[in-house]
Amino acid sequence: MFWSSARQMVTSKMKDKRLRLCAWNEDQVVLERRRRGNLFRPWTSTARLEDKTVVITGANTGIGKETALDLAKRGARIIMACRDAERGEAAVKEVVDGSQNTNVVYMKLDLSDTKSIREFAEAVNQGESKLNILINNAGIMAIPYGKTADGFEMQIGVNHFGHFLLTHLLIDLIKRSAPARIINVSSMAHAWGAMNFDDLNSEKSYEKKAAYQQSKLANVLFTRSLAKKLEGTGVAAYSLHPGVVQTELWRHLNGPQQTIMKIVSPFTKTCVQGAQTSIYCAVEPALEDQSGGYYSDCALASSSAEGQSEESAKRLWEMSCQLLSVSWD
User: Fold this and answer.
1) pLDDT at 14
2) Residue range 210-218: average pLDDT?
3) Model pLDDT, residue 142
């Protein structure tokens, strides 16, 4: 659906260029018309984060790095959790130089390997006295079929299972740090996804776009269940759509798809613009007691019907615990 719509965006001469960004289908066009007043407009706030500790996954590039830079400027201690040490250390230098905040560190985290996730979480739990904001930002999109070190299909393995386990392992520290927030970066693509509970790991059949959409729907459903589990703890959870952003996620697209994205790139968001909703969910005071919502363009938005399904959220939670061999109190 995405690519047929994108081709229409390129070939048709739509009168309203801004609507070309989200002309996936008529419903999305209507939604964008309603939101267009703040589309691309950066959200601004003077909120400070001194004495706050933040973990951001996938923080060495794209919206993760821009989120780290913004929160560092607000005075937070930033832990940039990345797989590649060289790129992670280079990103730390950029954030320190850009924010003049030296309380920024790199820590190794490979979300495709539960051993790495457990080692990272142990280091944070032992080395940090608090964790006020966890931003589950890292993600992969539309890649050829592959499996994680633990046998999960790579997209749902990294995008969902990796972050589910990471959150589980850090949750006690997060609770002790309340008020605290957990932010799961999803995508509008979740609206076209469906949870294939009979084949979560796409072992019977694999279509890379469908697998990505399923993983992003899982982010929304995870947030929904997590918010309920955390009621009364002072910890809030949010999921969000950052926008169609010019990031390295595009690198796995095929030739024609890359060409389409280059053509429509003037109508997509920069990484700075794409980071705004993550930053909004991290620092906006009004959201402190608004746990469980799905956000887009720094405003509450509507997720898909399945994204609001209590049955699907419960089933995904139970299957995730079973497959990862964990239990939540």
Assistant:
1) 37
2) 97
3) 87
The number of C-alpha atoms within 13 Å of 34 and in the hemisphere containing its C-beta is 11
| β strands within 200-259, DSSP E | 235-241
CA distance 292 to 303: 11
**Which of 106, 145, 206, 212 is flagged as catalytic?**
212
Q: Over the Cα atoms of the chain, what is R_g?
A: 19
294 labelled catalytic: no
pLDDT at 82: 97
> Residue 42 — very low, low, confident or very high, per pLDDT cuts 50/70/90?
low
SS3 182: strand
Among 74, 75, 40, 79, residue whose Cα is nearest residue 58: 79
Angle, CA of 296, 301 and 304, to the nearest 5°: 110
Distance between CA atoms of residues 308 and 300, nearest Å: 14
Element (H, E) at 57: strand 53-57
Q: What distance in Å separates the CA atoms of residue 288 and residue 233, rounded to the nearest whole number?
A: 12
Our separate counts of H helices and E strands in the chain read 12, 8
pLDDT of residue 256: 55
Strands, sheet with 77-82, edge to edge from the N-terminal-most edge strand: 104-108, 77-82, 53-57, 133-136, 180-185, 235-241, 294-296, 299-301
Task: pLDDT band for 37, please (50, 70, 90 cuts).
Answer: very low
The structure's pTM equals 0.84
Q: What is the CB neighbour count within 10 angstroms for residue 45?
A: 14
